[in-house]
Amino acid sequence: MTQNQSAHVWTQLAPRTEAADTETPLERLLTPINQAEVVKLYLEKLHDRPHSLFHPATLKAQVCDGLLNRALLLAICSTGSRFSLELEMRQLESRLMSESKSLLLADLETICVENIQCCILIANLCAAHLNPKSEALFFRKEYLS
Amino acid sequence: MAQILGLDAAPPAGLSIVECEVRRRVWWTLVMADRWSSSGLGLPRQITEPDGPVGLPMDEAVFHSLPTLQVTIETSWVPGLWAQMIMLVRLFVTIQDLNRRSATGDFGSDELTRNVDTITQQLEQWEDVLPDHFRMSKENLDFHESRGTGGAFVALHLGFYHYSALLYFQFLEGGESKRYVEKCKLYAAAYSDLLRQSRRRKSCEALYATVAHMAVVSSSVLVHTLLFGEEHELDQARRLLNSNFEAILELERYWPSCSLMVSRLTTFQNSCLLAETHTHRLDGWMVRFLMEHSLPLEDKDFFSMTAHVSPRSGDIAERAQELAEQGRYTVFDQSTLQND
Description:
- The complex is a heterodimer of chains A (145) and B (340).
- Helices cover 67% and strands 0% of the residues of chain A.
- Chain A is mainly α and 145 residues long.
- The chains are: A mainly alpha (145), B mainly alpha (340).
- At the A-B interface, helix 1, helix 4, helix 8 and helix 9 of A face helix 1, helix 2, helix 3, helix 7 and helix 10 of B.
């Protein structure tokens, strides 16, 4: 990427300081089309780099069919939303992470691959938000609990 | 959860190949995360025996092409990029342990050299046995970009360059082992160059948060070149430093934690300005700088250090001005990039 191209990307990515919509239900903001878009962004920008958690075609089909574990879906969407060129999608990042965490914690006694995948993503999100204690907690949950 | 589910064991019967491979990859992601997260947080590793009957991940292009429910596979298994990452991260663990022990004075000079030589051979062996299409080259970058595995290919080699720079970092101090110093500089420069190249290729970008930390480590080596290198090395060091900084700024847009990285680099450079000698000495502070990327880094406290560090008289701004006039100082500031 040239400096001009990277500068272009920067101007399109507004700072996170702008107020996010906390009133509208998440379901109205995260439409099936938006879900597909941010999952695609996650697969394009992050999948197979710091972690390898999914079979891309299977994941896309599960999202399209509405069959993916909701906590996991929201964790993927929170991770992918930061790469969206749409301000409203980027602003959803924290709400998506928060909702995913709540759902996961409520379901922690269900021992399944999806919950482990969700723990890994949330641990990474905690690290990204400079929350090392939560990062450590979620990484250790997925291995030991 | 992973232990209860038996992710570290052979998969149960009745699963499709995709389901088995996903379980396998989730396990190895946990192992990788344990190595990185523990180091970043300054905590002990949790997974002490990662190897078992689980097996290594298959070639990514083959995996991605499999139908979800397929239960048999005609092609023979070949290790993928993630298999190579897993074999390499074992050396990361060894290098982490070596650096921590070295910082506490556990090694005599000969023993340290023997250990570093052993790990050097292991790194070279890892590189030697890489399948041809996994070796770093422009042609392979093109190849992996075209088949959708560019991101993993870049991540593999960024890791290799980072681990190698970490291994030789302590030899920047003292200058006795010239070959180790050259290796450290080589890998730090290679990291910066690959990161720059990957940012120009849409599907090869390295946009995960730890890239910023690795760029800071690469930059700290380049700062050493800027401060102490020969005249003919300065232009390249400055160019690579600016390139790293540009990458870190972009990552900061995506990951709030990357704002820590710029301040870590500034803290590091300031510590170099304040020290008369031993700017890159591997002590406890330096270990925290190199490895504990998830934790805040305090300014180097020269007053509590022992006699091996001699604080310089005069202030940082004065020293920075002096070095800038010699072309040996760069400001980590967006205005620097805009003026380039």
